[in-house]
Amino acid sequence: MTAHALANNTIPEATKPIMSSTVTQVDAAVDPITDGPLFPSTLISPEVISLLPTDYTIRPMRRSDYNRGYLDVLRVLTTVGDITEEAWNQRYDWITSRNDEYYMLVICDGADRVVGTGSLIVERKFIHSLGMVGHIEDIAVEKNQQGKKLGLRIIQALDFVAAQVGCYKSILDCSEVNEGFYVKCGFKRAGLEMAHYY
């Protein structure tokens, strides 16, 4: 932009931002510097992207997903609690500082609302020549979005990310009632989960 344009507080037509009717209120208030993707979008399987329903997108989590209903989707899965936006931002920053460990993605509908999510946590080991294992966690799909294979696409996308970042396997825990779903996703029973809650 020229000094003349700045001084006159005008913006030449060629440099004006293109405004789309699909820009949401969330997008209008988002800072692109602090709201970048949690990890590179190139790690998401092009095949999975192509298999989503029309107008649905899959992408890395962003800070602004707090306002897109991310926590509401997790409430389908388990107890979440009352998390303020400030607390969300603190946790998001902590996760961002470990961007080679945490790969959290979301599926959004045509209105840019989060309707599904899942996480991959990469564990670095001494065994298997300093190998890495991908732990798939927190797979959740909004109740009125179930039946569209979104859960399957999330699992496929996370499994692809695990392979891309060098994991030698992906593992997950599930209840027996969900075992059939995960078998359809290519997983097989490989032991028994034990837990000690605090």
From TrEMBL:
The keyword Membrane appears for this protein: yes
Pfam families tied to this protein: Acetyltransf_1
Isomerase as UniProt keyword: no
GO terms classed as biological process: UDP-N-acetylglucosamine biosynthetic process
Family annotation (InterPro entries): Acyl_CoA_acyltransferase, GNAT_dom, GNPNAT1-like
PROSITE patterns in alphabetical order: GNAT (PS51186)
SUPFAM superfamilies per record: Acyl-CoA N-acyltransferases (Nat)
GO molecular function, one term: glucosamine 6-phosphate N-acetyltransferase activity
Enzyme Commission number(s) of this protein: 2.3.1.4
Pathway: Nucleotide-sugar biosynthesis; UDP-N-acetyl-alpha-D-glucosamine biosynthesis; N-acetyl-alpha-D-glucosamine 1-phosphate from alpha-D-glucosamine 6-phosphate (route I): step 1/2
Topological type in the membrane: Peripheral membrane protein
Record domain N-acetyltransferase: where: 56-198
Catalysed transformations (reactions): D-glucosamine 6-phosphate + acetyl-CoA = N-acetyl-D-glucosamine 6-phosphate + CoA + H(+)
Similarity-based family: Belongs to the acetyltransferase family. GNA1 subfamily.
Quaternary structure note: Homodimer.
Protein name: Glucosamine 6-phosphate N-acetyltransferase
Source species: Penicillium crustosum
Organism placement in taxonomy: Eukaryota, Fungi, Dikarya, Ascomycota, Pezizomycotina
